[in-house]
Design a protein that fits this description.
heterodimer; A: about 240 residues; alpha/beta; four-stranded antiparallel beta sheet; 10 strands; about 30% helix; B: about 450 residues; alpha+beta; twelve-stranded mixed beta sheet; two-stranded antiparallel ribbon; 14 strands
C-alpha cells in the first residue's frame, strides 16, 4: 500500500437545502518520497481535496489511508494529532504570528506535541531548522522585519519542526516574485530529494507545477490527469477519467 | 500541552499587545482597587465605630445578686447577698474573655463641703478597674489605687456635676469633703460623660474605694464585718480584708480546717457587695464571657446542677445589636459595590477577548493546523483572560492599598489592612477571568480550522 491512498473520496457541502458536490469520487495514491503537484483552476475542488489530504476536513464518503491508517473518520482531536505528527503546512500568506520572533514562530508547533521537550531543546531544534532554511542570522527578527521569501522560509522551518513525513504547500509562491519563488521551490525539491519528505504542492500555476515529479489535475471535482509529466501543462480536459 | 507552556503562550500573546492588555485590565484594576480601598477604609471606620460603641459600654456586663422570696413574697432582684469581693477577683482571674472586673457597692447619702451640700445620684464604692471598664478618663488628679482599696483609705473621685455643685467652679482636687461625717480627700476629677442612653446624668457621681463606702460610709463598722467575714468566707486565705488593721480583735471562733470548710460551706457571705461590673475584651467576647462567668460563679457558690443561679447577669443587648447591625449593613454595602465593579470589569474583559478572538482567527486556524486541539485553544484563551484578571487584580490590590494608605496619611482616616479582602480579591479576579473569559475561549475553540485559516 502506498503512503497516501485515496479511495473514491466524495465531499458534498450542504448550503441550506441545496447539496453542492465538490469532490465526486477521487481516487489517487502517492508514494512516500514523491513530489506531487495538485493542479486545477479555482473552484475545481483542489482546495477541498487539499483540506481532506491535510486532515483539516473529513470526506463525506470514501477512504483516506495515510501511513497505514484510515484517517477519514477520525475525531477532530485525533486529526489534530495526525496533523501535528505527520503533516507540515506551508501557506500562501505565510501565516506567521505577528510581533513574534522567527525562533518562536518556528518553535510554536512544539507546544502541541506529546514529546516533552524542554524550552532549551525546543529553541535548539527551532534554531537548527532556521539554519537549514538559511535564516541563521534572522533568529530574533519579527515577520515584519523579514522579506516575503524569508517569511516563507520561516514558515517552511515551522512546518518541518516536528519532522513530518509529508509537507503540504498551498500556493506557496502565490505572494512571491518569480526569483524568490524559484528559491522556495528549489528548497522543496531539496527537501524532497535529500530528506525523502513527500511534498504535495497545491497550485494553479503551471510553472510551479512543473517543479513536481508528477501532477494530479483536478477539474470539476474529478481527477483528470494523474500521470508523471515533465512537459508543459496540458490543456483543460473535459470529461476525463473517473 | 503542558500547563506552564500554556501560561507562557498566554503571556507571550498578551505581550504582543501590551497597551491593549493594560486598557483591558483597567476595569479589573479599578474594580479590585476600589474594593480593597473600601474594605480597608471601611474596616478602619468599623473598628473606630466599634471602639466608640465600646466606650459607651457595649461590652460591659453587670452581675447582680439573685432574688429571694419569703413566704411566697419575692423581694426582687438583689435581695440575696450572694456576691463577694472574692467572687469579683475570681472572675477577673478565671475568665479569659474578660478585660477587667470591679466590685460595686452603692450608697446614697449627703456630701458636704464647707457650707454647701449635695446628694450625688450615684455613689459607688469600687476598685480602680471601674474606670477602665467604663472607659472613663480623668479630667485632673490621679485615681486611687488598689492599695487605697485594701487599706480603706479615705479618698474619692468626683464627677463633673457633683464637683460643680459642691465647689462652684473652684479647684476640687486636694480638698476634703465629708460624706456621712467621714472626711474624704478628693484625689481626682472625672472627665465629662454627659447623659446616658436613658437620660440619666452620668456626671452626678462620687467614686470611692468600696471598702470605704461599705465599712465607713454605709454604716457597718469594719471590725464587726471583719469578725464575721473571717469565719464566713469560704476562701479566707485570699480574703483581702482578713487583716486590714493590725489592731483587730482576736477571732472569736477557732479557725476551721480545709475539710470542714469544704464539707459545710457557709452560705452567707457577710462582706457582700451590691454588684459586679465587668468588661469583655470586645463586643464579640460578650457571649463567651457570660458563659465563663456563669461557670466560675456557680463553682464558687457551690451550686448543684439542679439549682438555679443565685445571681443575674445583664449585657447591653441594645447597644450590641446596634453595633452588629451597623457592621452588617456596612459589609453588605461594600459587597454590593464590589460585585458591581467586578461585573463591569469582567464585561470589559469579555468584550476585548471577543475582539481578540476575531482578530486572531487566522492565528487560531494556524495553531489548529499544526496540531492544537480544541481544548488547547480553549485553555490558551482562558489562561489569557485569567492572566489579565490576575495581573489586574494584583495591580488593583497595590492601587487600593496605596490609596488607603494615602487616605490614612492625608485625611487621617482610620485604615485597617484586611488580608481577607486581599485573598478574596485574588480569588474573585481569577473567578471573573474564568467566568467572562470562558465564552470567548469557547468561541475560539469552536472555530473551523479551514475557515479560520482563510479568514481575512
Amino acid at each position: 500500500m502506498n503512503f497516501i491512498e485515496l479511495h473514491n473520496i466524495c465531499k458534498t457541502y450542504t448550503m441550506g437545502d441545496i447539496q453542492v458536490p465538490v469532490l465526486k469520487g477521487v481516487s489517487a495514491s502517492i508514494a512516500a518520497g514523491e513530489c506531487v503537484a495538485l493542479v486545477g483552476a479555482s473552484g475545481s475542488g483542489k482546495t477541498t481535496l487539499m483540506n481532506i489530504l491535510g486532515c483539516l476536513d473529513h470526506p463525506t464518503e470514501g477512504e483516506y489511508w495515510l501511513d497505514g491508517e484510515e484517517v477519514s473518520q477520525f475525531s477532530p482531536d485525533r486529526r489534530a494529532l495526525v496533523r501535528n505528527h505527520k503533516l507540515g503546512f506551508v501557506f500562501q500568506n505565510f501565516n506567521l504570528l505577528a510581533r513574534t520572533s522567527a525562533l518562536e514562530n518556528v518553535a510554536m508547533p512544539l507546544s502541541y506535541t506529546s514529546e516533552n521537550l524542554s524550552d532549551r531543546q525546543a529553541r535548539r531544534r527551532a534554531r537548527e531548522m532556521l539554519c537549514r532554511v538559511g535564516l541563521a542570522d534572522r533568529l530574533e527578527h519579527e515577520p515584519s522585519q523579514l522579506s516575503g521569501g524569508q517569511q516563507q522560509r520561516v514558515a517552511i522551518a515551522r512546518a518541518l519542526i516536528n519532522r513530518p513525513p509529508v509537507l503540504f504547500a498551498d500556493e506557496p509562491t502565490g505572494n512571491l516574485d518569480s526569483h524568490t519563488s524559484a528559491e522556495i521551490l528549489q528548497m522543496f525539491r531539496q527537501l524532497n530529494r535529500e530528506d525523502g519528505i513527500t511534498v504535495i504542492l497545491v497550485t494553479h500555476d503551471a510553472d510551479v507545477a512543473r517543479w513536481a515529479d508528477r501532477r494530479i489535475r483536478i477539474h470539476d471535482g474529478l481527477i483528470v490527469e494523474g500521470e508523471a509529466a515533465t512537459s508543459g501543462p496540458g490543456g483543460p480536459n473535459e470529461g476525463g477519467r473517473p | 500541552m503542558k500547563a506552564y507552556r500554556t501560561v507562557k503562550t498566554a503571556l507571550r500573546a498578551l505581550r504582543r499587545n501590551p497597551m491593549r492588555a493594560m486598557l483591558t485590565t483597567l476595569g479589573i484594576v479599578i474594580g479590585i482597587g476600589s474594593v480593597i480601598a473600601m474594605m480597608e477604609i471601611g474596616s478602619g471606620s468599623s473598628q473606630s465605630l466599634q471602639r466608640a460603641i465600646a466606650s459607651m459600654g457595649a461590652n460591659v456586663l453587670m452581675i447582680m445578686p439573685g432574688s429571694t422570696a419569703s413566704s411566697g413574697v419575692s423581694q426582687g432582684a438583689g435581695s440575696v447577698a450572694s456576691l463577694t469581693p472574692q467572687d469579683c477577683q475570681a472572675l477577673a482571674e478565671g475568665c479569659p474573655s474578660l478585660r477587667a472586673a470591679a466590685p460595686v457597692v452603692r450608697a446614697r447619702t449627703q456630701i458636704v463641703y464647707g457650707s454647701r451640700n449635695w446628694a450625688p445620684n450615684q455613689m459607688y464604692g469600687t476598685t480602680p478597674a471601674f474606670l477602665e471598664i467604663r472607659s472613663w478618663t480623668l479630667a485632673s488628679g490621679q485615681p486611687f489605687t488598689d492599695r487605697d482599696v485594701l487599706t480603706a483609705n479615705r479618698v474619692c473621685i468626683l464627677g463633673q456635676t457633683t464637683a460643680q455643685e459642691l465647689f462652684q467652679g473652684e479647684e476640687a482636687v486636694g480638698k476634703e469633703i465629708r460624706v456621712n461625717n467621714v472626711p474624704l480627700l478628693v484625689v481626682a476629677l472625672l472627665a465629662r460623660k454627659g447623659a446616658n442612653m436613658v437620660g440619666m446624668d452620668q456626671d452626678d457621681i462620687l467614686i470611692a474605694p468600696w471598702t470605704v463606702v461599705k465599712y465607713r460610709i454605709a454604716g457597718s463598722t469594719l471590725s464587726n464585718a471583719n469578725q464575721s467575714s473571717s469565719g464566713g468566707s469560704s476562701s479566707g486565705a485570699s480574703n483581702l480584708l482578713s487583716k486590714p488593721f493590725p489592731s483587730d480583735p482576736p477571732d472569736l471562733y477557732p479557725a476551721r480546717s480545709d475539710v470542714q470548710t469544704r464539707n459545710s460551706p457557709q452560705l452567707v457571705r457577710f462582706s457582700s457587695i451590691d454588684s459586679i461590673l465587668a468588661a469583655a475584651q470586645s463586643v464579640a467576647h460578650v457571649k463567651p464571657a457570660m458563659e465563663e462567668m456563669r461557670t466560675v460563679l456557680r463553682r464558687r457558690h457551690n451550686l448543684r446542677e439542679d439549682k438555679g443561679d443565685d445571681f443575674d447577669m445583664r449585657d447591653m443587648t441594645e447597644m450590641t445589636n446596634t453595633f452588629s447591625s451597623t457592621t452588617r449593613v456596612m459589609t453588605n454595602l461594600l459587597l454590593c459595590v464590589a460585585l458591581i465593579s467586578l461585573v463591569v470589569g469582567g464585561v470589559g474583559i469579555m468584550n476585548i477577548m471577543l475582539v481578540s478572538v476575531t482578530e486572531r482567527t487566522r492565528e487560531i486556524g494556524l495553531r489548529m493546523a499544526v496540531g492544537a486541539r480544541k481544548r488547547d485553544i480553549l485553555r490558551q484563551f482562558l489562561f489569557e483572560a485569567v492572566t489579565l484578571c490576575l495581573v489586574g487584580g494584583a495591580m488593583g490590590i497595590a492601587l487600593g492599598h496605596g490609596g488607603s494608605l494615602l487616605v490614612q496619611q492625608f485625611l487621617r482616616w482610620p485604615v485597617e489592612t484586611s488580608p481577607t479582602a486581599i485573598v478574596a480579591s485574588v480569588l474573585v479576579s481569577a473567578g471573573v477571568g474564568i467566568a467572562f473569559g470562558f465564552y470567548p475561549a469557547w468561541k475560539a475553540s469552536r472555530l473551523d480550522p479551514i475557515e479560520a485559516l482563510r479568514y481575512e
